[in-house]
Structure formats: structure tokens, C-alpha cells
Design a protein that fits this description.
By secondary structure, the chain is mainly β. Helix content is 0%, strand content 56%.
């Protein structure tokens, strides 16, 4: 069973998108009970809509749960538990901070991924023995050939 709510609010050029959910699963599969995704951003078209600026924060959170075993050989998650894994799984919010500039078919972006890594605790794991990626800064561009 799953219940989810989503909403988008706008005040001028400031947007707030939220999606929250709760789920209940019975059986051998253990999933988080609560999930949340929040995006807060500023979007502005300038120079007669020739340039679109967007900057904001994306946040994602799930409640604690016992994760699946990850099999690196076949790249799949399996139901089960590691006998030698004794660390508690506590999940902290994942935060991304970004800015993008669109000029017609070209988008330039700068993004700080996993900005919250190390803020709440020393680090955390997405699956046993596989830590979440460290905080990183990325620059790039997308060129959309067909617009």
C-alpha cells in the first residue's frame, strides 16, 4: 500500500515542488516507510527569453530501513542480510545545489552534489559496504540538437 501527495507552489519566479509518501510492504522486502522529495528553485527568463536562469536546491529523504544486499558481479540488489554487517543504517537528507543557464539549445550547469555529506554524520551507506558518493562539484553543458 502506498499513499503519496505532491504539490507545486509558485510565488513570482520562486517555485517549491514537494512530493511526500508513505508505504507499507509485507513480506521479505523491506522498504522505507516515509519518503520525501523537495525542490526549491528560482527561475527567471532574461533578455527577451533568450536566456533562462534557474538556481535552487533539491533535497531527498527516506526513513531508516534495512537495505538489500548488492551483488557487484551481476549489478543487482538481492533480498537478504549480510551476516557480518553490524552497522546501523540511518539515512540523512541528500542535498544538491545547482545553477543552470539555458541559451536556446545550449544549457550550461554547475552542481554541488550531495552537499549534506558529512553534515549530519561522518558518512552513510546506500547499501552494505557501498558508501554514498562524497560531496562533489560538477560543471557541464547539454547541447540539445533537436529543440
Amino acid at each position: 500500500m502506498r499513499i503519496s501527495l505532491s504539490n507545486q507552489l509558485q510565488a513570482g519566479d520562486i517555485y517549491l515542488r514537494t512530493a511526500v509518501g508513505a508505504q507499507s510492504v509485507s513480506g521479505p522486502v523491506d522498504l522505507p516507510v516515509f519518503l520525501a522529495n523537495v525542490s526549491w528553485y528560482y527561475r527567471k527568463a532574461v533578455f527577451g527569453r533568450a536566456l533562462i536562469l534557474q538556481t535552487g536546491i533539491d533535497a531527498w529523504y527516506c526513513s531508516n530501513y534495512d537495505p538489500f544486499i548488492y551483488n557487484i558481479v551481476n549489478g543487482q540488489f538481492n533480498v537478504g542480510h549480510y551476516a557480518d554487517w553490524d552497522y546501523p543504517f540511518t539515512y540523512a537528507p541528500v542535498l544538491d545545489v545547482y545553477a543552470s543557464f539555458d541559451v536556446r539549445t545550449l544549457r550550461f550547469f554547475a552542481k554541488l552534489e550531495n552537499a549534506a555529506q558529512g553534515l549530519y554524520q561522518k558518512g552513510y551507506y546506500e547499501a552494505p559496504f557501498y558508501p554514498c558518493q562524497p560531496r562533489s562539484f560538477k560543471l557541464g553543458f547539454n547541447w540539445m540538437l533537436f529543440y
